Amino acid sequence: QVQLVESGGGLVQPGGSLRLSCTASGFTLDYYNTGWFRQAPGKEREGVSCVEGRDGSTHYADSVKGRFTIFRDDVVNTVYLQMNSLQPEDTAMYYCNAVHGSEIYRGQGTQVSVSS
C-alpha cells in the first residue's frame, strides 16, 4: 500500500521543540522531492521546507530558517522536520508531500500547537 504518514505533532510551549516524521510505504523517498507544508485556520497553505530526492539539497521558508531542520533517513524511509524555538505563529496543521514527476503523494497531517 502506497502512503505517507505524518506523526510527531503535539502541544508545546513557546521556545520548545518538536520533531515531525513523514514515513513512506510502498515507495522510496530518496527518489522524491519531499516537502513539509502547514496551514493555520483562516490562512493560506505555506511551504515550510523541502529536501530534494536527487541530491538531498534542502530549502526553507524565511519564517523558519535557523529554527527548523529537514533531513531524511533512507534506512527507515522517513523525512523528519526538527522544529526548535517554536513560536505561537508556528501553530498549524503540518503536512508532507512527496513528488516525483507527475506522482504526488500526500499525508493526512499532524497538528502542531504552540501555546503557554
Please specify the SSE layout and strand pairing.
Blueprint: E1 3-7, E2 10-12, E3 18-25, E4 33-39, E5 46-51, E6 58-60, E7 68-73, E8 78-83, E9 92-100, E10 103-106, E11 110-114
Parallel strand pairs: 2-11
Antiparallel strand pairs: 1-3, 3-8, 4-5, 4-9, 5-6, 7-8, 9-10, 9-11
Any key phrases for this structure?
116 residues, 11 strands, four-stranded antiparallel beta sheet, mainly beta, seven-stranded mixed beta sheet
Describe the protein in words:
With 116 residues, the chain is mainly beta. The chain is 0% helix and 53% strand. It contains no helices and 11 strands. It has strands at 3-7, 10-12, 18-25, 33-39, 46-51, 58-60, 68-73, 78-83, 92-100, 103-106, 110-114. The strands form 2 sheets. Strands 2, 4, 5, 6, 9, 10 and 11 form a 7-stranded mixed β-sheet that branches. Strand 7 and strand 8 (78-83) form a beta hairpin. It is globular, with a radius of gyration of 13 Å. It starts with a strand and ends with a strand. The mean pLDDT is 96.
